[in-house]
# Entry
Amino acid sequence: MHADLIITGTHVFTGLDDEAKPLSICVKDGRIQEVVAPGDAQRFIGPDTKTEDFKDAFVCAGLHDAHLHAFHSALYSSPLAENFLGENEADCVARLEPLAKRRPNGWLLAQGWREYRWNPPVLPSKHSLDAAYPDRPVALYSGDAHTLWLNTRALEELGVTKDSIAPEGGSYDRDEEGELTGIVREAAAMELMPRIVASFTLDEIAHAYEGFLKRLAENGITSICDVSLMAQPGLDFVRDDVYATLEKEGRLTARVHLFPTLLEDMGRFESMRETYRGPLLNASGFKQFFDGVSSQHTAYLHAPYTNAHFEGDRGQTTVPFSTMHDLVMKAAEKGYPVRIHTIGDEAIHEALDIFEEAHERFGLPKFGRNSLEHLENFQPDDIARLARLGVTASVQPPHITLDPGGPERDLGADRCQYMWPFKTLLAEGAVLAFGTDSPVVDVNSRGVLYTAVTRKDATTHAPENGWLPSERISMAEALRAYTVGSAIAANDPDIGTLEAGKWADIAVFDRNLLGEELADKPELILEAETLATYVAGREVYRAK
# Structure
């Protein structure tokens, strides 16, 4: 049978071994028909077959971002908002000016600030925003997506006063006189976000998503896991309605796996699971949250933080163990996989306890594999236990260098040796799945690969020898984590490798990512350019 499309390259990485070799990928009806030596491709060529010879380029399965938050990624990379780290509080306020001119009415939104990266590293307050924007509500979302910085007008608009009581797991910061500072944390921030963004129309949001999808394709990313951002009911920002609109109009250019919040009532997920059964859009499992982030001392640790803010400061779970246990058991009984946000070592340990019991009672999930998300620092024995339980390690390599000096500051040298242990996880037989946690980190695929193989920051190339360099992995291992491993995290057996029967999701880069030149000078990884991206054999990106 003749192919619709044949893609040939000198360096084709199928993901089935560590090599890139000359191959031709024959595509029929959106799926890979055969992968053959270039000389054998002639028999698949008919009068309507399109052929693409990318010569010395690098061809691999489409990359898959296993953990991102599409709504905020789309919003904060669109003209509707701004995205910046800023050098300090005043600089962040100044950077809002272009948005204020672009959108003269309504909310001013931005994302990306991290006070511990500023000079000086101090928390901002509402006062600086009030001075510049006394009459407009302003909301700046932190880079780690756990904190809001609001002005007085925003607090008024949201009905938050000095007498307001924050929801469990969140807080409204107050100064020594009991006045609101404008800093809102964790669950309290998450509760406010839907009201802040409610002014945008579905058309505006869909257009922002379309821009984000274009950005994915430019990076060779053909599929994503859009995972819940917030645990509270109705606040997960998994916008299936936006994707459905794009799919209906033929504008959905990536494969999307939805992971809404795991709740006592599973009705929304089960409805989505029945509704979205197509190859481009499906509901693949649940997401829940067990702790916060180390930089804010909300990640849950076995022993107190090295720089404890108070005696016994070791964070806490976002929900009681019993609540998480019962939720996971209910999902396990129906065979549904669950992904749990776990950053601190005790959160990881207790989540594995729950998964272990679920496996003993109900076996492995019928519809995929359980996963832990982020996994920043381990208790040593839990590395092998995670692998033994078949729990996917869903990690984001750029997080390693996101807060220079932060791990040593918060956890100390002894615990740092068990942070983001990619090489050790692979040695124990665990499955690594790569993502970015966008908008926490940009969906720059080259940055993900570079940091995974060097343990260095993609912008500063620091530290010089890499952070915990013993945990560097090879480029082949990194690519498999970004393709095969992420497909496993998505519970999608039809993507991740280039082999017959799978969807023809393909990325083409302008240089051999497995070549000796890049191994000797890994900074060249960052200069790699995407030449073309295909989803089910459909070209969704072509370099100009």
